[in-house]
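Design review, sub-item: ligand-bound model
Attendees: FS, YL, KQ
YL presented the inputs for the 7TS complex:
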Amino acid sequence: MTSGTAISAQRTTPLDVAAVRQDFPILRQRVHGKPLVYLDNAATTQKPQAVIDRLVRYYTEDNGNVHRGVHWLSERATDAYEAARDIVRRFLNAAESREIVFVRGTTEAINLVAQTYGRTHVGAGDEIVISTLEHHSNIVPWQLLCEEKGARLRVIPISDSGELDLDAYQKLLGDRTRLVSVVHVSNALGTINPVDEIIRLAHRRGIPVLVDGAQAVAHMKVDVQALGCDFYALSGHKMLGPTGIGVLYATSSLLEAMPPYQSGGDMIRSVTFEQTLFNTLPYKFEAGTPDISGAIVLGTAIGYLTQVGLDRIAAHEHELLEYGTDALSRIPGVRLMGTAKQKAGILSFVVDGVHPHDIGTILDREGVAIRTGHHCCQPLMHRLAVPATARASLALYNTRDEIDALAAALGNVREVFA
Ligand code: 7TS
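KQ shared the predicted structure:
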């Protein structure tokens, strides 16, 4: 879409969910004799046919190792791999494609920063600021680093509705703060954090900020330059792409100054037994044969998301969130967890007298897939004083009918335990 008219049409025309659903073959399945209602998108999203086809086509026509052969297939695979990097760059609006490092996922992206930037910049007595909303993958790497260095983890508290306390955040920032690392959208509660403000406040003191974008990029437009973040992490499988591929965005000045993460082939310029010179960005951080097909297919997934339009996806999911919030609030005994004003499509809840695991099992019999448990956010569960929640998480292909199916199945849960 290039014309102004087409772009404004994209903003105003609602998403055609029926057409979108046609693109996702897995959604046609029946589970236990019932139509599949897939509401576990925060764990992983389903894949459109275009993504599946591209994966098959890669191994049918394009497979070769990248950056090494002069032969046709190697060049073809290299071109597609580097084209995918540029698709990611455009998607995130990064300034340069060398700021896009392919990794396995958000977890690896955060570990990379902890092990490279973290190990060179954090020392005894220094502090790293995270928040109560973080996934374990944005807690444990910092905890390990702090243990190694004698540094301290500081945690931004939240309100009962699941919003960050920005006054407390400002007070946490000090001369010893070396990094702020916060989630963009909470996977457990759906809270959309004011990351622009968080970054602005950190940058006033010259502190870099990492944003965990795992739950944001498939649901809203993200512009890393507009945000001004220093690092942004994402997972391909949560944005219609395959598992095993993800991205670390970092500004080129930071990446240049960081030591390599893993070492071996592809990340070197020259090796002697005495000395190794590292490759240029981003290859310095991509040791070994990467997930070539994963990166290429992630490019296809991004193309799909962009074509449908992230503004339309966000509007559709917001409408469903409101519909679902209303539907669940009417069910006696259901208590919604996380009622932030700015929320993405996540409905986390508990049901009086029923363990979340039992909710999940009963819903599964109705064909409704949700996740139950602590969602890899045990400190957050502790703060909310619940051991676990049941969580329905939305994506572009979900419908009001599916929310109705969730609400009806939840009615059964209470009958079973009445
Ligand atoms: N950060 C957030 C906010 C996440 O939601 C997840 C995965 C991760 C990081 C880790 O991503 P990975 O792709 O490296 O594993 N969240 C979930 C979830 O909510 N249910 O299953 C995985």
